[in-house]
Design goal:
The complex is a heterodimer of chains A (400) and B (235). Chain A contains 13 helices and twelve strands. Chain A has 400 residues and is an alpha+beta fold. In chain A, helix 1 (4-11) crosses helix 11 and helix 2 crosses helix 11 (323-352). Chain B has 235 residues and is an alpha/beta fold. The chains are: A alpha+beta (400), B alpha/beta (235). The complex binds adenosine-5'-triphosphate and magnesium ion.
C-alpha cells in the first residue's frame, strides 16, 4: 500500500510547506514564551547561586533583600560571625539604578561588597576578564551584559568608577546586569544627596536651635557627621560551616538578633513564588492563548486541506477504500504538518532566543513536552476533519 | 459465479413528495457470466441511476438484485459491507474519469489491487499490463492533470478492470475516445468477459460500438426492454 497522505503532500508540497512554516512561527513564539519564563526562574536561581550564601539575614519581617527593601545595621554581621557554625558573614547592599557610561545609561543592580575580601559571600564567584576589586573606593566589576569594557569609567550617582573586571550571568531577578562596587561607596550611593541638598540640609541643621546650641561646641559637627553617613546595609550573607544546617543557624538569629533569616530554599520560594509570580502567570496566560490559537489554526488548516480533497475522498470511498485508510490519511497529514511546524518553530526559537534582552532558556524537557503537545493538538484537530470526511456520501461525488 | 447479474423489478425514486422523481420504475435485466451487454437510452432515462444502484453507490427503492449467487438487494441491502463489495466484486467505470489527482497514472490504477492487499510491485505490474493494452503506458508516470480527456478516460477504464472483478459496470466509457480506441476498449472488455467469466454492462450512445453487442437493453422512462443486437465480431 502506498502512503496516500505522503503522495498528496508531495503533489502540493509548496502549499504544505508554507502552511507548516506559518504554523512553525506560531509554535516558535510559544516555545520562546516558555523560554522567557524558564529564563526568569533561572535568573533568580543564578542570583542566589552567585551570591554564594547559605543564609540571608535581613530586616525583621521583610522579604528582603531582593523582593522587598530591607535595612539592617552594618555592624550586625560581627555578632553573626561569632556564632558557632558560621564560616563567613558579609554585609551586602543591593540597589537598582541607572549607571552612566559616557553618554549612555544602563539600568543595573549595583551591589556593594566588602572591599578587599574576594571569595566572601556576595562577591562574584568568577570573572571572565580583569580582576576583582582590590581598593576600597572607585573600582567596579560589571556584568558583561551591561556592555561596559575593562578600563572604562562609569558613573554611579556622583562618583566615577573604573571597570576592573567583568562577570557573566550575574543578573538581578529582573534580568538587570549587576555592577559590583566597594561597600562603603555603595552605602554612600544609597544615601547620597546632590551637593545642593547637602548644603541645604547643613544650613537647616545649623539654623535649628536645638542642634546648634551656643553652649555646646562640637554638637553641630557631630550631628552633621551622623546625618551624612549611612550605617545601614540591605542584608548579611552568611556561609555555613560543613556539618551545620542552615535552619539550625537561622533559628537563633531569628530569635536573639530580632532579624529575619532565610535559607536557600526559602529564598527560592520568595523569588519564584512571589517576586516573579505575576510575570509567570502573565506568561502562562499567553501560553494558554497561544496553544488555543495554534490548535484552532491547525484545526482550520486541516479542515480546509480536507475540504479541498472532498471529491477525491468520495472517489476513494467509491472504489472501496476503508474508513480507516481515509482517516489515517488525514491524521498523517495533520501530524506531518505538526512535525514541520515544530521543526520550524524550534529552529526559530533557537535563533531568536539570544536576540531577546533578557535571558531566554530553552529547556530540552520543554521542547519534548512542546513536541508532544503539538502532536496532541494536531491529532485532536484532525478529528474534526476526519468526522467530516467520513460523513461524505460517495454518491454525491459523481454526477450522472 | 453462476448467474452473473440478475435485476428484477428494481425501482429508484429520488426525493419525496411533490419533488419526487421516479428515475427507475421497473428494471429487469440479466447478464450471464462472460457476456457483454449494451444499455442504451435517451438522456435522463435512468442509465446512470441503474448502474449506481447495481454498483451499490445508491440504494434502490424497490426490487431485487443478485450478483453471482448472492442476493445483494431485496427491498434493502442484504450484505453488510457495501464498500468491500465495490472494492472486491465490482469494476466501475464512471461517466467522468474521477482520477485521484495526487497519484500518477500507474498508481491511480494500482491503488485498487493495493487496497485489496496485493503487494505494491505486483499491483503496479498488473496496472501497467492494462495500461499497455489501453495504449497509455507511455504516460504511466504522468499526473492526471497532465492528460487529455480521452487519456484520463482510458486510465479510468484500466482502474475499473484491474481487479478482474466478476462484474464490470461501464458508464459511457468510450464517449471521449476516437473510434479506433473505442473499439479497443470494447475488445478488451470482451476479452476479459471471456477469460474471467465477467458479466459486463456498457452504457453507450456510441454508434460505432452498438453493433458489437449481442444483446442490448433499451431503457426509456425508467423501464427496460430487451432486444437482440448485431453481435458483430471484431477483427
Ligand atoms: N440525485 C438526484 N436527485 C434527483 N433526481 C435525480 C438525481 N440523479 C438523477 N436524477 C434524475 O433521474 C433521472 C435519471 O438520471 P440519470 O442520471 O440516471 O440519467 P442518464 O440516463 O444517465 O442520462 P445521461 O445519458 O444524460 O447520462 C433524470 O431525470 C435525473 O434528473
Ligand atoms: Mg448518465
Amino acid at each position: 500500500m502506498i502512503s496516500l497522505a505522503g503522495r498528496d503532500i508531495l503533489n502540493a508540497w509548496g502549499k504544505f510547506v508554507f502552511t507548516g512554516i506559518g504554523l512553525g512561527l506560531l509554535i516558535g513564539v510559544t516555545l520562546t514564551m516558555a523560554g522567557v519564563y524558564r529564563g526568569m526562574v533561572d535568573d533568580g536561581k543564578a542570583l542566589l547561586d552567585n551570591s554564594g550564601a547559605d543564609l540571608w539575614v535581613v530586616q525583621q519581617d521583610t522579604l528582603g533583600p531582593y523582593a522587598e527593601s530591607s535595612s539592617i545595621n552594618d555592624d550586625l554581621y560581627r555578632s553573626i560571625l561569632a556564632m558557632p557554625g558560621v564560616a563567613e558573614a558579609a554585609n551586602v547592599t543591593y540597589l537598582t539604578m541607572q549607571v552612566r557610561q559616557g553618554r549612555r545609561d544602563v539600568r543595573a543592580m549595583v551591589v556593594g561588597v566588602v572591599a578587599g575580601s574576594p571569595g566572601k559571600p556576595g562577591w562574584p564567584p568568577y570573572l571572565v576578564a580583569g580582576r576583582q576589586i582590590t581598593r576600597s573606593h572607585y573600582e567596579a566589576v560589571a556584568d558583561i551584559a551591561a556592555g561596559f569594557r575593562l578600563g572604562e569609567r562609569i558613573q554611579v550617582r556622583r562618583n566615577h568608577y573604573t571597570v576592573v573586571g567583568l562577570t557573566r550571568r550575574m543578573v538581578s531577578s529582573s534580568g538587570d546586569p549587576m555592577v559590583f562596587i566597594p561597600l562603603k561607596d555603595a552605602q554612600e550611593a544609597q544615601f547620597l544627596k546632590d551637593n545642593d541638598a547637602v548644603l541645604q540640609q547643613r544650613r537647616r541643621t545649623a539654623e535649628n536651635p536645638s542642634l546648634n546650641r551656643p553652649g555646646v561646641p562640637g554638637l553641630l559637627d557631630a550631628v552633621i557627621a551622623s546625618q551624612s553617613n549611612n550605617p545601614y546595609v540591605n542584608a548579611v550573607l552568611v556561609r555555613i560551616r560543613p556539618g551545620y544546617s542552615a535552619e539550625e543557624i537561622a533559628r537563633p538569629i531569628r530569635r536573639w538578633q530580632r532579624l529575619t533569616a532565610y535559607t536557600r530554599s526559602q529564598m527560592e520560594e520568595i523569588l519564584i513564588g512571589k517576586l516573579i509570580a505575576t510575570s509567570s502567570k502573565q506568561i502562562g496566560m499567553f501560553l494558554v492563548i497561544l496553544a488555543i490559537v495554534s490548535a484552532a489554526i491547525v484545526a482550520f488548516i486541516i479542515y480546509t486541506l480536507t475540504m479541498d480533497k472532498i471529491r477525491e475522498i468520495a472517489v476513494l470511498k467509491l472504489i472501496g477504500t476503508r474508513n480507516r485508510t481515509i482517516a489515517a490519511m488525514i491524521m498523517q497529514q495533520a501530524i506531518a504538518l505538526g512535525v514541520i511546524g515544530f521543526v520550524v518553530g524550534k529552529i526559530t526559537a533557537t535563533f531568536a532566543a539570544p536576540l531577546f534582552p533578557k535571558y531566554v532558556l530553552l529547556m530540552p524537557l520543554d521542547t519534548v513536552a512542546g513536541f508532544f503537545a503539538v502532536l496532541m493538538i494536531c491529532v485532536l484537530a484532525s478529528l474534526i476533519a476526519i468526522r467530516m470526511a467520513l460523513k461524505v456520501d460517495p454518491a454525491e461525488a459523481i454526477g450522472g | 459465479m453462476g448467474k452473473g447479474i440478475l435485476i428484477e423489478g428494481v425501482g429508484k425514486r429520488y426525493g419525496t413528495g411533490d419533488t419526487a422523481v421516479d428515475a427507475l420504475k421497473s428494471v429487469n435485466m440479466h447478464v450471464a457470466p462472460g457476456e457483454v451487454v449494451g444499455l442504451i437510452g435517451p438522456s435522463g432515462s435512468g442509465k446512470t441511476t441503474l448502474l449506481k444502484c447495481l454498483g451499490a453507490v445508491i440504494e434502490p427503492t424497490a426490487g431485487r438484485m443478485v450478483l453471482g449467487d448472492q442476493v445483494i438487494y431485496d427491498k434493502g441491502w442484504r450484505i453488510p459491507d457495501l464498500r468491500a463489495l465495490r472494492r472486491d466484486r465490482i469494476g466501475f467505470v464512471f461517466q467522468a474519469p474521477y482520477l485521484i489527482p495526487f497519484l500518477d497514472v500507474t498508481d491511480n490504477v494500482a491503488l485498487l489491487p493495493m487496497l485489496a492487499g496485493v503487494p505494491n510491485a505486483e499491483a503496479r505490474k498488473r496496472a501497467n499490463e492494462l495500461l499497455k493494452a489501453l495504449d497509455i503506458e507511455h504516460r504511466a508516470r504522468a499526473m492526471p492533470s497532465q492528460l487529455s480527456g480521452g487519456e484520463q478516460q482510458r486510465v479510468a477504464i484500466a482502474r475499473g478492470l484491474v481487479n478482474r472483478p466478476p462484474v464490470i459496470l461501464a458508464d459511457e466509457p468510450t464517449a471521449p475516445l476516437d473510434s479506433e480506441r473505442a473499439l479497443t476498449v470494447i475488445r478488451i472488455l470482451n476479452d476479459m468477459a471471456r477469460r474471467f467469466e465477467t458479466a459486463v454492462i456498457v452504457v453507450t450512445h456510441d454508434e460505432k460500438i452498438i453493433p458489437t453487442f449481442k444483446r442490448i437493453y433499451h431503457i426509456r422512462d425508467g423501464v427496460t426492454h430487451e432486444e437482440a443486437g448485431e453481435g458483430r465480431a471484431f477483427q
